[in-house]
Amino acid sequence: MERSTIVRVHEGLHARPATRFVKLAKGFESDVELVKDGKAVSAKSSVKLMLLAVKENQEVTVRANGADAIEAIEALIGYLENPKAGLDDEAEPHSPANDAGQETAPAPVLQSVPGQANGLRGVAASEGVAIGPAFAHFPPDIAGQGRLLQADEIAGEIDRFRAAVAAVQARMDRALAQDSLSAGDRGIVAALRDIAADDSLTGEAEKAIKGGNDAVSAVITAAATIAADFSAVDDHYLNARADDVHAVGRQICLVLLGQDDVSLENIPEGAILIADDIGAWDLARAPLKRIGGVICGHGGATSHIAIIARSHGIPAVLGLGDQVNALRTAHDVALDGNTGHVIIDPDAATRAEYAGRVEAGAKERAGLTAFKTVTPKRADGKVIEVAANIGSLEEIEAAQEAGAMGVGLFRTELLFMRHMHLPSEDMQAETYAALAKAFAPHPVIVRTLDIGGDKPIAGIEFPDEENPFLGWRGIRMCLDRPDIFKRQLRALLRAAVHGNIKVMLPMVSDISEVTRTRALVGECAAELKAEGVAYATFDLGVMIETPAAVLIAPALAKEVAFFSIGTNDLTQYIMAADRLNPTVAKLNDVTNPAVMSAIELTAKAGVAAGIMVGMCGEAAGRPDLIPAFIEMGLTELSMSPASIQRAKKTITAMATGD
What CATH number does domain 151-257 carry, 3.40.50.620, 3.90.470.10, 3.40.50.300, 1.10.274.10? Predict the structure, then answer.
């Protein structure tokens, strides 16, 4: 069977979306291929999939042959048509360096720096400025042993190679199991693990071993071959994956040689890390909070080094080429991640200039950091809860660091999308309980499963819909699949014993959806009681994201404990403008009078009924709109952790008149 579609995945099937696509494909027994421009590759190979260079808005065909071919095609097509596929929980921080004209590093040349003759220029990969002691990190290159194997040695060498690959995978699995790894870094390590396990790399290496090469030489050759394939693709992002292949190959070689790589554990506080090349695996495990900046000979704005640096707020200049060797003996270094400038051993004037810029940036951040522990209030003393929108337990730390007053939206669909099978009741209960304990006593609002044809989930078959955003999704799907929904409700009741769990229903458009859900909650509670399992009740609320919900808000308010306005979907439905369609983007504006009127009508209905009215859409974090929302009567705003401190500052300024 086969079916064609237009790829809507943002920026195409690069590393992380490809990894998730492969994971989804491997969940089916059928043989699955992806075809583009007449070339077919296995949909269960990350490397082959990335080398196919599938870009956004290109046409592809999914082929499947096997017992579950229909389910496989439906799920994979749904994934390809989802713009946020593979990026929901680990979106890459944007950098102005992603402009096409800046992807390739200019030839590093001496710059005209006032009072200096030792300036270099590379790729501005992560914004910010830094100055500090140089920490040179130049591990020795690994060379093949150059030994020709005898025929009776080949089988043992292949076993040794496979053991090394397994050891590298196990090491990466241990890293993925650590709570300290951020969601973004986790996605990168998962992509590297897929490369280590991919038949393209292992098959190429084993082929070389069978030809008589020792395992180390074989890995070096195989990595070089695949890296060259990535370098040859006409895509800057995929070109950067060549570095990942070399990094994985190096890790396998180190295991084969019984060696440990040079560690970054001892890097001093505020030091500038300098290297010819840094594997994403090494950087993700480094003490990132101690690193003041990163300078690298290899890499560009789309490399995983750059992505990690941006996600942790570390200034970085990459792509210096051989000129990075001039930094090997440097004592101090200044770098500007906004322009790509690097200055070796800066003079007094330059040192003072950079120190001033660093201080100014720190003051700006500190000015907001001061609001981390602030409890913002209206002028009348009413507390406004500023909470976080998150989708996984890995995001808890960032929310807490920002000063989140609980969670206003926990997206449970990521828990389902991460696994080959539907998550068990126990797994869900443990996740929700961990979330509740992390933010106690602040409230945690968990959104029940919000998926549809635009978000494929292994284990749920979705119909082919012309417009999945108006189709069988959210509460509609859940009520039709009580076997799935009751498992989640039971898990939420069990987690509610911690006292701060609230639950809200997505895509509500009819009061019966609330009453039917409440009946299921009652059934689940009775079952748990009969089984002798501890549970507690929770407040039940709804997301206001359909025009129908707005128009029946006064009646809905009598049935629920709270409203949470989802401005992203509400805006597109009010304006009848697909928020993912660039041709109607100008209509997708939350400040449009029609949308603002819908928000105000909802707030009035909630206030009149005496229930909490909150907001969990992107607009909740906009300083220019927060005053209007507060005046309407909203008392809870939930947003990305990065927006929390600025929102608290805005609310506090309203109350004080500053």
Answer: 1.10.274.10
